[in-house]
Amino acid sequence: MTRRTSTFAQLGRVGIVDMKVVLLIGAGLALALAGVGTARGDVITVPTMEPAALQAALVDPANPSKLGITSVSIRNGQPMQFGTYSNFNLNPVTIRAGVVLSSGSVQLLGPLPEVLDPNYQPSSPPAAVNSQMDNENDGSTSEFNSYGNSGNHIENFQGSYDVAALTVNFHLATPSQVKFDFIFGSVEYPFYTSSFTDAFLVFLDGTNGNDQIAFDNAGNPVQVGASFAGLTVTNDLNTAFSSPHGLIHHLTTTTQMLSAGNHTLHFEVGDVNDHILDSAVFIANLRLGSGAPGTVPSDDDRRCSPADIAFDDGFPIDDVPGHVNNGINEGDYNCFFAANGFFEQASDGPGARGDFCDIACDDGEPLSASGNCNNSGVNEGDYNCFFNHFFLGCPN
Ligand SMILES: [Ca+2]
Ligand SMILES: [Ca+2]
Ligand SMILES: [Ca+2]
Ligand SMILES: [Ca+2]
User: Fold this and answer.
1) Dist. CA 113 → ligand 1 center (Å)
2) Contact 234/246 with Cβ under 8 angstroms?
3) Residue 338 predicted with pLDDT over 90
4) Ligand 1 centroid – CA 371 distance (Å)
């Protein structure tokens, strides 16, 4: 048992909620002390509840297997809890552009300047990721509560709050499996892990418990603390969900074979046990594709290997549409040695972390999203990694 869990047990829910409110007051002070933060690779978010904008962002327009979405609607939630995002591009954690849902506001989800303050308290994050969104009700959904209250699905569950729920209707011309990628992050990590177990649920063709399809090998749905053990990542450079906070490694969910015809997905992210310390999910690339049904760690498959850093025309892989990436080829070589490539980045010291040539730890091992290796920037580790992988081409 962790100290947090025993504290929760001793104080009960009301006691710890009071403590969180007190700590919130401290967050304002931290903000004032930190001042304006440094821009890293801040993810760009655009809050919107406009169905057409959300529908367009759920698929990769360049993917020939993109899902045939027929309509999108807001099932539950408040303005600012929904949006599109892009620029989630700095290594080691990346995901292509898509839709973001939050139990708080999606407006400012880039790296938190406040965490640079040596006195930063991870138990009291700033308002950007710590907001009650529904001021009249709890903001729950019946399916989230029903799912959390049954089968020990969600650890220590007593109720959902500020649930952002998005419904996606789609049509399959032939029997198919459907895939999507996502990253779930929370500022409940690391302080309130296992006591305020914010979660991400995905219901397919219904909202009963057995319609929920995203869970780990132990049967846990995606939640703070008890799912996808060992996949917590704190070295993301794009979002607020980096050290001391965290996110779960890029995951891909694959459905069972679905019949031809119309189907529905409900994506729901919510606070658990109170309104505050928010969690968000970044969802991308709804598509057709085969594979073992389930939810597994994956990589942002824009890259077939660490050396696959560029489009065929030599531009670094990013969210700009209209470029093509056929894997490892001269585009990657030209990009690596471009004027703004390896040699320039190698002179930038730690500032080059996350640049497109920063593909490896200092020892030459590929940057692993599941670990925090020694990576002081762009150096011979990246050079060695690039050539060790470049001549291998794309793995099968
Ligand atoms: Ca909230
Ligand atoms: Ca929360
Ligand atoms: Ca390439
Ligand atoms: Ca490096």
Assistant:
1) 20
2) yes
3) yes
4) 29
Mean pLDDT of all residues in the chain? 88
Ligand 1 centre to CA of 171 (Å) is: 33
Q: Which residues surround ligand 3, an ion (CB under 5 A)?
A: 308, 310, 325, 331-332
- Residue 272: both structure tokens together: 């658990």
pLDDT tens readout for residues 76-127: 999 999 999 999 988 888 899 999 999 999 999 999 999 999 999 999 999 9
Mean pLDDT confidence for 40-64 = 91
Q: Which ligand is nearest to the CA of 323?
A: 3
Q: Which residue has the tokens 């030599």?
A: 314
Ligand closest to Cα of 135 equals 1
Q: Which ligand is nearest to the CA of 353?
A: 4
Q: pLDDT tens, 279-331?
A: 999 999 999 999 999 999 988 777 888 999 999 999 998 756 667 888 999 99
Question: Widest CA span of the chain, in angstroms?
Answer: 62
Task: Determine the Cα–Cα distance for residues 176 and 184; give it in Å rounded to an integer.
Answer: 26
Are 200 and 279 in contact by the 8 Å Cβ rule? The answer is yes
Looking at residue 273, the DSSP 8-state letter turns out to be: S
**Ligand (nearest to CA of 389):** 3
Contact 163, 77 (CB under 8 A): yes
Residue-wise DSSP of 117-172: STT--TTS--GGG-----SSS----HHHHHHHHSTT-STT---EEEEEEEEEEEEE
Picking from 285, 168, 295, 160, the residue whose alpha carbon sits closest to that of residue 221 is 295
- Judge whether 58 and 283 are in contact, CB under 8 Å: yes
Q: Which DSSP string do the residues of 287-326 spell out, in sequence order?
A: EE--S-SEEEE---TT-SSTT--B-TTSPBPSS-TT----
Among the bound ligands, the one closest to the CA of 350: 4
